[in-house]
Amino acid sequence: MTNTTQQPHRNGSLEYCDAVIIGAGVGGMYALHHLREMGLSVRVYDGAGGIGGTWWWNRYPGARVDGPGSPFYCYTFSEELVREWDWAETQPSQEQVLDYLEHVADRLDLRRDIQLETWIRDARYDEAVQRWTVETSAGARVSAQFLICAVGTLSAAHKPDFPGLDDFAGECYHTGRWPQEPVSFAGKRVGVIGTGSSGVQAVPEIAREAAHLTVFQRTPQYSIPARNRPLEPELMQYARENWDEVRAKMNAHPVGMPFETTSRLGAEDTPEQRQALYEELWQKGSFNLLFGSYADLLTNKETNRTLADFVRAKIRACVKDPEIAEKLMPDYYLGTKRQILDNGYYETFNRDNVTLVDLREDPIQTVTSTGVRTETGDHPLDMIVMATGFDAISGTMLRLNPKGRGGVGLKEKWSSRFDNYLGMAIADFPNLFMIHGPGSPSVLYNMPLGAERETEWIGNCVQYLRERGLGAIEATPDAEKDWDKEVNELANETLYPLTDSWYTGANIPGKPRQFCVHLGGPLYFQRISEAAAKGYEGFVFEEENNGDVSAAS
Ligand code: NAP
After folding, report:
1. Where residue 459 falls among pLDDT bands split at 50, 70, 90?
2. Which atom of ligand 1 is the closest one to the Cα of 154?
3. Given the CA of residue 337, which atom of ligand 1 is nearest to it?
4. pTM
5. pLDDT, tens only, 16-63
6. Which protein residue has the closest C-alpha to ligand 1 atom 3?
7. Which of 90, 391, 507 most suits a substitution to test ligand 1, by most atoms within 8 Å of the C-beta?
8. Whose CA is closest to atom 34 on ligand 1?
9. CA–CA distances in Å: residue 136 to residues 140, 158, 300, 550
10. pLDDT of residue 11
11. What's the whole-number mean pLDDT along residues 343-359?
């Protein structure tokens, strides 16, 4: 690469750097660090007012890591970072995660190359110079050989177009676009629409403060107690002292966590043994029921039913009013929608100030200036909280809509299928890499670890080009087809595709149905390493054309 410099430089109205990264969340921050360490000049842009991506936007009440969190939901590459950061709880709050990311940004001196409050208006590949030209909302134009899209999997907020929504005179917020200023629920009649992870986290918090809370539920979901608690100092210490070993376990685990996996099948136990195991794991909380119960939980309908029955019985036992309990009863294969963890969700429906509206039997007709009207009547509200989710996984790339060869936009390429290779590269979009793209393990993997491993692959690929004087790399359409097949085959061995979820795109009206997560875990990382070892099998290269870089436009 003849144009590599340590610092971005300017030529007329155009700024030049080696790589533009879009997104300053968990993925973009690490990509900046890693590529900069390699000697590349890098610029990062993010539309948010701060670093942290999803952890910057999702500040709704109750937002916290809802998985096996501390001390393993973090960057793993630096023992120093592990040593110097104390996690307070097993499932840190949004505020704590953001504090950690702020700390990382300071420690790695990331901020000097990150421009916030800056959306990318246009990103376009110029075949003549083998570079991307990016135009920002501030009117700046930047030319980069590589475009790294770390745009987030759960970032394009889905705000259903309820009739009359614009007429609502009260406050209205989306959980994924929560205001920076404190929001008070005190004395207010609040309506929460949506009962996915965000709604389930927010509901108990809002109910404690609001005069009245109405929960508008369309599809009931299984929720498991998070059992968040102060992190045992011994665990933190163990992790610090044995980080290499912990990291190796994380790398070998199906979802990137340092836990043992089970090979036991549901049918190997008697109903009594299963019940006892489920009870023990329920008491432990978090994802123990998913990872610690049976190996065939997500592949065998009968095993799945036994756990689903167990959780349904827990809901019945918790919710005092049997009619309300029945409305809360989920009916799909447990775990095939993103598993929800809660801190007192079902108990909330025992409160006098909480009403559950079952939208399946009483759908929303319209939003009025004073509330929500369902078929059976009006629900007067001072505030609406839309916990209605995201155009997940592919939505942020489509919102960016980069233009590849011939000026063809991604929206056109992805009009019916999200074709790509290795979850990272797209045919006709040379030198563009996605972190956590469709077809990578992304949302079903420990995301900071996944981002590190994908970024390291991208870094090696960039190095490969530099060492050989190559100007561009591009996935082939055949490799995309094979990858699509592989992702599908893995998914079809499981129960995931049988459920309508945001994993399959079913939550967005009109979105093509496609299961967009590579379920291989370590297999995925083996596959991408193999492709690299075979000289980036599935890719084609172009010699560096030595075009006049200053001609990029
Ligand atoms: P979600 O899981 O997609 O849930 C959206 C909810 O809104 C669902 O209950 C959905 O009902 C409902 N909804 C959507 N459109 C609707 C409409 N037109 N009318 C009525 N209801 C409608 O979104 P989310 O809760 O924001 O969670 C998304 C993902 O973000 C999670 O699965 C998780 O991966 C991540 N997340 C992570 C954390 C964390 O702490 N790590 C926290 C929150 C979220 P249907 O089910 O019927 O579509």
Report:
1. very high
2. 30
3. 32
4. 0.96
5. 999 999 999 999 999 999 999 999 999 999 999 999 999 999 999 999
6. 389
7. 507
8. 338
9. 5, 23, 49, 19
10. 75
11. 98
Beta partners for residue 44, in sequence order? 21, 114
- Tokens encoding 339: 């598993």
Cα of 228 vs centre of ligand 1, distance in Å, is: 21
| Interval 154-175 mean pLDDT | 97
Distance of CA 459 to the CA centre of its chain: 22
Residue nearest to atom 33 of ligand 1 (CA): 197
In this structure, are residues 266 and 275 in contact, taking their beta carbons and an 8 Å threshold?
Answer: no
Cα 249 from Cα 470, distance rounded (Å): 36
- Separation of 215 CA from ligand 1 center, angstroms? 13
Residue 170: pLDDT band with limits 50, 70, 90: very high
Strands in 425-538 per DSSP E: 432-434, 470-475
Model confidence over 363-401: pLDDT tens digits? 999 999 999 999 999 999 999 999 999 999 999 999 999
Residue 69: the pLDDT is 86
DSSP class per residue in 77-107: S-HHHHHH----BSS-BHHHHHHHHHHHHHH
Determine if the peptide bond prior to 71 is cis (ω within 30°). yes
Task: For a ligand 1 pocket test, name from 56, 198, 223 the mutation site with the most ligand atoms within 8 angstroms of its C-beta.
Answer: 198
Q: How far apart are CA 311 and CA 396, in angstroms?
A: 34
- The tokens describing 301, both together, are 């309908």
Residue 328 to residues 217, 341, 358: CA-CA distances in angstroms?
8, 15, 8
Compute how many other C-beta atoms are within 10 angstroms of the C-beta atom of residue 354. Answer: 20
* Mean pLDDT for the chain overall: 95
Pocket of ligand 1 (CB under 6 A): 63-66, 154, 160, 175, 193-199, 201, 218-219, 338, 359, 387-390, 443, 502, 507
Give the pLDDT of residue 547: 54
Q: Over the stretch 529-551, which tens digit does the pLDDT of each residue have?
A: 999 999 999 999 999 987 544 43
Q: Which amino acid is at 16?
A: Y
Domains of the chain with CATH codes: 9-156+392-551 (3.50.50.60), 265-328 (no CATH)
Q: Compute the distance between CA of residue 384 and CA of residue 216 in angstroms, rounded to an integer.
A: 10
Q: Which of 36, 153, 230 is nearest to 448 (CA)?
A: 153
The fraction of the chain above a pLDDT of 90, given in percent, is 95
The continuous run of DSSP H or E covering 123 comes out as strand 120-126
Task: Choose which residue among 205, 338, 391 to substitute to test ligand 1 binding: the one with the highest number of ligand atoms within 8 A of its C-beta.
Answer: 338
pLDDT at residue 221 greater than cutoff 50: yes
What are 251-295's pLDDT values in tens digits? Answer: 999 999 998 889 999 999 999 999 999 999 999 999 999 999 999
- Nearest-angstrom CA–CA distance, 459 and 38: 8
What values do phi and psi take at 367, rounded to 5?
A: -95, 135
